[in-house]
Amino acid sequence: MTTTRSRGRSVGAQRVALWIGLTLGAIFAGFPALWMLLSSFKPNTEIFQFPPTFLPDTFTIGAYTDILTNPEKLRFFINSYLVAGAVVLLTLLAGIMAGYALSRFQFPLKSLLNTVVISVQAVPPITLLIPYFGLVVWLKLYDSLWALMLTYMVATIPYAILMMTGYFNTIPRELDEAVKVDGGNTMRTLWQVLVPIARPGIVSVGAYTFMVAWNEFLFALTLTQSRENRTVPVGIQLLMGEHSFKWSEMMAMSVLGCLPVLVLFLIFQRQFVSGMTAGAVKS
Amino acid sequence: MSPTLLVMLIMMAVPVAMVFVYSTLSNVVMERDPEFVGIENYLTLFGDEIFRKALGQTAIFTVTSVTLHLLIGLGFAMMLNSGLLPRLAAALFRVIYILPWVFTASIVVILWQLLLNPNGVINYLLEAASLIDSKVEWFSNPSLALGTVIFINVWAGYPFIMISLLAGLQGIPGDLYEAAEIDGAGWRARFFNITIPQLFPILLAVAMLDFIWNLQQFPIIWLATGGGPLNATETIATFTYNLAFSKHEFAMASASGVVLFVVSAIVALFYVRHQKARD
Amino acid sequence: MHRRLVATAAVGAAAALVLAGCSSDDGSGDTVTLDFSQWWEVELSEGVMRGLMDRFEEEHPGIEVNLISNPYSATVDLQTAAAATGTLADIVAINGASVYDLQDQGAITDLSALMDDAGFDPAELVSNDQIDGVTYMVRALNFAYPLYYNTDLLDAAGVTELPTTWAEFDEAAAAVTDPSSNVYAWSLPINVQSPAGFDSQSWLWSSGNRMLDDRQPNFETPEVADWLTFLQGQYDGGYVTPGAFTQQEQQKVEEFTAGRNAFLIGSLAHVQGIREANPDLNFSIGSVPAQDGEPSGIAGASWGLGIAENSEHKEEAWQLIEWLMSEDVNSELATEATGFPGNASSVPGFVDGDPLYELAFEVYSSSEFVTELEGLPQALDLNRNLNENLVRLLQGEASVEQTQASLQEYWTGVLSDG
């Protein structure tokens, strides 16, 4: 745990305030998601009932069985995880290496590189769609998961570099000096000193990268066409028909999609309480 | 590694360069031999009343969203990081707080459209609590629409800031707080003299990125209102989309995209100069 | 400029190929594979579309069909992007809203020539829409948009006779509307993100009037003024479900299905969905009331087919279209989709035995099928503009005359240089 350990009654008051704040926050954050979960067990008509029902009157898991027994739909999940997983790994690797270089070394064109890396984030994807699409076709990557992985990396690597630079910057340089004095080279400094300390930062960059790759729709739709290359967001959109939406199935697909993400997060969130603060290391 | 990086560099740079070129041509994509028209597209763009309205609304949308993202993100991160919670509760809240993040934009919008439907559960609860006496049209009322869309965008976007700041908070040496406490500093002093300055590099980086991303926020606005009613939620992003895919004015759309790019690049430049000054 | 871009990209391509490991091997052997991009597979029951394709493949050895399903809402955007990059599928399902722009973009090919080559007689088609004398799209199915009404709500409100004129409808609407129990006469979704349906236009068309005259806007007529005044009266009377300005087509159907709307103007394809979702709902079908007198026009949409200009197998692609348009197959498709066949001699199987469909067929056959927006340049943009102007009118920010003038001006701008 980090810090505060005030004495006496003020801790009690703080606790109460904290619990109230956390509960309000949880309602804000969680109520819509809870509503989605409940809706996924309701038949279509009940979703639109007024006054609304909170717990499903007619409880059905039809939406879930429809998805889980359909190999085409399961494929959407596999693709999404495959793409997101690969993108996270490669992005983190690139982000850590480049972030380290930007944080610890001076080299020519550093600020130019920095500006470019940031500015690339600044072009609206819709404007890029057609020229980018053309390039992907030309590279013969159209309708492949490779196209999606590359695309998402184009979006996430600059971000990762930027954030990793930021996190490394918060780590005192004296630490690397110490390793160097002990005879370690720069790579060892990175992997044995900086990376373990920056673990919360790495997890947060990884989480962001995962979410981008996992939720992206526009390029996933445009750069693939065959069913075996579709991802979950496109699969969800396929449930929105010309005349009607398959509401409960959309909700169910979304719930199924986010469960593994939440489990992953539950595992990695320990990094945020690891107590591995820079200060602790220093002493 | 290096061929991958090369491909990536090309994939970043080539389309961006092409957008710049497009913006100086007569209608690309639709015409077989577009001509060079210089800055004409930009002049037409800035002469358009709705584009100017969209510029203003983009500013409101972005500034409000980023501010609220930062406030909520920082608030939640500090509550989660307070160290006053049992481990399990902390883990549980952490997961609940990232929930808005795990849904794709179309689901976020669909969900809020259900909740905020005139016949939806939120109106029902507000009615039951006697806070409203007729059905509120959250999306269809031109004076509420922008606020509603911003609210959804805030909901969907704060977890990114929260997680980044949570990670940043881990990096603040605990002995700083201990020393401050010995000196008798209250929580306010600790917050402004330790937390904020220590967090500043991360805060600045996420604020800038969030600013740039929200400047181009498209799916949430488009799916919720399409920029309507009466252009009340029109932003540069929805305006650009309409130019490209509804009016088939791809050159104009590129020009509109370049405007966003320039604004973002200026913000980025400030950030980089700040970084440089710090080095 | 272009050449340099290409040269730069070439470097990347080499690297990308290494990255991709191997390139795919297509176009081998004697089998022709046709890509067929459509949104129909999702609309029809599972396996129907694939089943049809399997039969086609059986009857046409050497041709294989690869079905590509796209979300309906993204169809037009995807086709625009695909056309710009030369990746449009061999056969594309299109609707009247995008056909003009796709041919303008040079993306879809001249079907008249292919029909000639194949010896196909266009007289077999119910309608043969042409742009400058050339056919670019064949309508596989037509969907009529009659008026649905909830008999329980009308009975409860004491409305015994079905309204056939606007005045009668106005009375019925006033009688059924009851905000305290959350019942409204009808929904008028006039959003701008995905304009669909004909909830506003149907009233004009059913009265025998039109927005266009010889493909040019004709909004400044007393008939259009009356129509706008009628819509305004409905909205101001509070008969329209709240949220109209951003309501979506699908939400409108849910309102009716949930028993909160007494009327609905919607595709015949909804019948089955409504029955499945709410088996207890008693509803029937009729014509959209006319201003006065007999209703004469019914709104409609279509599922059309076109062939990509960049297709290398146009002849085979035409074979598939011709097969889908053949008498038996077309009526089968019509039955599955609850649409009306595009082949003039096909009869949809669903008409027999179901009183509701028989009623609908009667309405359809006794009315003129109106598709005013189809085949126009930037049809989607025009539809957006119509909705935007309606919002302004209903919001009280423009008068009826101002709305007419504004529509006339915008549509003239698009249609005269289109």
* CA-CA gap between termini of chain C: 30 Å
Query: Mind describing the biggest β-sheet of chain C?
Result: 7 strands, mixed
Helical content of chain B (DSSP H or I, runs of 4+) = over 70%
Poorly predicted regions of chain B are none
Helical/strand content category of chain C: alpha/beta
What overall form of chain C do the CA principal axes indicate?
A: globular
Fourth-level CATH superfamily of chain B: MetI-like
Main location (chain B): membrane
Keywords (chain B): Cell membrane, Membrane, Transmembrane, Transmembrane helix, Transport
Organism (chain B): Occultella aeris
Protein name (chain B): Maltose transport system permease protein MalF
Considering the chains and any ligands shown, give keywords for the structure:
heterotrimer; A: 283 residues; mainly alpha; MetI-like fold; 14 helices; globular; disordered N terminus; disordered C terminus; B: 279 residues; 12 helices; 74% helix; 0% strand; Bact_solute-bd_prot1 (chain C); Sugar ABC transporter substrate-binding protein (chain C); signal (chain C); SBP (chain C); transmembrane (chain A)
Please describe what this structure looks like.
The complex is a heterotrimer of chains A (283), B (279) and C (418). Chain A is built from 14 helices and no strands. With 283 residues, chain A is mainly α. Chain A has a domain at 70-238: MetI-like (MetI-like fold, Orthogonal Bundle). In chain A, α4 (71-104) runs parallel beside α7 and α12 (232-238) runs antiparallel to α13. Chain B has a single domain (25-278), classed as MetI-like fold (Orthogonal Bundle), CATH 1.10.3720.10. Chain B has twelve helices and no strands. Chain B is globular, with a radius of gyration of 23 Å. Helices cover 44% and strands 14% of the residues of chain C. In chain C, the strands form three sheets. In chain C, strands 1, 2, 3, 4, 10, 11 and 12 form a seven-stranded mixed β-sheet that branches. A three-stranded antiparallel β-sheet of chain C has the order 8-5-9. Chain C has a two-stranded antiparallel sheet with strand order 6-7. Chain C is globular, with a radius of gyration of 23 Å. Classes of the chains: A mainly alpha (283), B mainly alpha (279), C alpha/beta (418). At the A-B interface, α1, α5, α6, α7 and α10 of A face α1, α3, α4, α5 and α7 of B.
